[in-house]
Amino acid sequence: MRDHRRLGRELGLFDTDPLVGAGLPYWLPDGAVVRHALEEYVREAERAAGYRHVYSPVLGKRELYELSGHWDHYRDDMYPPMDMGGEQMLLRPSLCPHHALIFRSRTRSHRELPYRMAELGGMYRAERSGVLGGLTRVRAIQLNDAHIFCTPDQAVEEAAGALALISRAYADLGIRASRHRLSLPGGGGKYVADPALWRRATALLREVLDASGVAYEAVEGEAAFYGPKIDVQITDPAGRESTLSTVQIDFHQPERFGLRYTGPDGARHRPVMVHRSVIGSVERAVAHLLEEHGGAFPPWLAPLQLVVLPVGEDQEEHADAVVREASALGLRAGVSGLAEGSLGARIRRARLVPYQAVLGAREAADGLLAVRLRDGRRPGVLPVAEFLRRVEERVRAHGTALWEPA
User: Fold this and answer.
1) Helices 155-173 & 29-48 angle (0-180, nearest 10)
2) Among the four residues 67, 124, 291, 334, which has the most C-beta atoms within 10 Å?
3) What's the pTM value of the predicted model, to 2 decimals?
C-alpha cells in the first residue's frame, strides 16, 4: 500500500525533526519544487477566473476572532493567546476574518461585485498529538483559500463556478473525488444560532449541487460553525476518507463584520460571502498526490521533468548543453552521468522522471535524442529542439498525458 510518509522520505520531499515539533514538517528541495509548482498552478487558475490575490498576517488580536465567532465556537482548536504589550494575540485558525476586514477597508460599489479575493496563506490548528500524521494532519497549514463577496443573486453562480474550478484542477492533477457531501449542522452549541440563515444558505448550496449534476449526500454534524458547505471528499489507498476542497455560502460573517456595498439604488446592502478552496491545504494535497501517483507526478508537477543520460564520457558535454537548452525553456532538467552507474542502473533510478533522453555517439553527432517515457513507451529518435518543444507543450498544458502523437 502507498503511504505518503514513506514515499515522501524515500523521494526526499519532506521530513520532520523533534526539535521543530510534531505536526510541523519541513520541505526538502524536491518537495519545495512540487509545492511551488502546485501553488503557481492554483494562482494562475485563480487569476484566469478573475480572482485577485492578497497577503494577510498570520496573527490577529483576540477581538478579531471574537467578532468572527471563532473564539466562541472554535476555541478548542486554536492556540492559546500570546500576551504582547497588554494585548492578546492569536495565531489565526482561518483566513476569512482577515479577508472580511480587507473587503470592509473601503466603500464598495455593486459594480465591483462579485469581488473574488484569494490567498495562499498560513494558518494554525492546535491538533492533538495522537491525530497528527505526515502531511495529512499538521499544525501549520498552507491553505489555498478564497472568498467571494457578491450579491445574493450572484451567490449560486459564484459557488457553481468554484465547484467547476475544483473539477478542472482535479483533472489536471490526475485525482478524483470519491463523493460530494452537503455538510449540515448537527446538535449542540458548536454552530451559530440563526435558523433562518442556515436554511437560506442550505437551499442555495442544494441549488448549486443540483445544477452541477453531481451526486451528493447530506450529512449532519459536518458543517462549519457559521454555515453549511459542500465538501469534496477524497479517499486514500487504505480507504480513509477526508475533505480536500470546499465551497461554502456564508451569511453569518458578513453580518458580524458589518459588511456593506452600495447598490444601484444608492442604498447600503449586505453582501454574501462565498468561501472556497480549490485544493484545500497544500500539505494534504501533496500527500494525496503522492499516494495516488506513487511519486510519478504529472509532468508539470514532477520535481525533475527530464533527465539526459549520456552513454559515454564523450557525450557528457553534449548532455550538459541539452540541459541548458531545456532549462532556458523553463523545464526542470538534469544529467545522470556515468559516475552514477551503468546506463541500465541510471534508467532504473530515473523511473519516476516523466522524460528520459539517451544520448549516444550517433545522437550527439546528429543533434538527436533517443526518447524514453516513464511508462515504457519509446517515441523514437528526435531532434533535440523538437523533443524539448513537445515536452514544453505537455508541461505548459498541464494535465496528466505524457505524450501526444505528432
Assistant:
1) 140
2) 291
3) 0.94
